[in-house]
Amino acid sequence: MSNIIKKVIPMLDRILIQRFEVKTTTAGGILLPEESVPKEMQGVVVAVGPGARNPAGAGHLSVGVKEGDRVLLPKYGGTKVDMDDKREYVLFRESDILAKLE
């Protein structure tokens, strides 16, 4: 894991996710343009915020995922985050994540 990612701490209930890379070549070796390949709807959790503020009092509500979990993502949404490495990172709220995969 990059040192840059270790310095990123999402705020409140936000979660930083690295999307899985999409294959851009077919089994026969044909290269596909990026526009024709659908986005990958799965990713791995890279960093997790402390959780949403507790409306009943002090502290934060716990987040349902932890670093290293595989999650199912919506097709659209999230905030794209550019880092020095060439991977695709997206910042989502906890409520935007569709499911946790095992």
TrEMBL record:
<dbReference type="GO" id="GO:0051087">
    <property type="term" value="F:protein-folding chaperone binding"/>
</dbReference>
<dbReference type="GO" id="GO:0005524">
    <property type="term" value="F:ATP binding"/>
</dbReference>
<dbReference type="InterPro" id="IPR011032">
    <property type="entry name" value="GroES-like_sf"/>
</dbReference>
<protein>
    <recommendedName>
        <fullName>10 kDa heat shock protein, mitochondrial</fullName>
    </recommendedName>
</protein>
<keyword id="KW-0143">Chaperone</keyword>
<dbReference type="GO" id="GO:0046872">
    <property type="term" value="F:metal ion binding"/>
</dbReference>
<dbReference type="GO" id="GO:0005759">
    <property type="term" value="C:mitochondrial matrix"/>
</dbReference>
<comment type="similarity">
    <text>Belongs to the GroES chaperonin family.</text>
</comment>
<dbReference type="GO" id="GO:0051082">
    <property type="term" value="F:unfolded protein binding"/>
</dbReference>
<dbReference type="GO" id="GO:0044183">
    <property type="term" value="F:protein folding chaperone"/>
</dbReference>
<dbReference type="InterPro" id="IPR037124">
    <property type="entry name" value="Chaperonin_GroES_sf"/>
</dbReference>
<dbReference type="InterPro" id="IPR020818">
    <property type="entry name" value="Chaperonin_GroES"/>
</dbReference>
<dbReference type="Pfam" id="PF00166">
    <property type="entry name" value="Cpn10"/>
</dbReference>
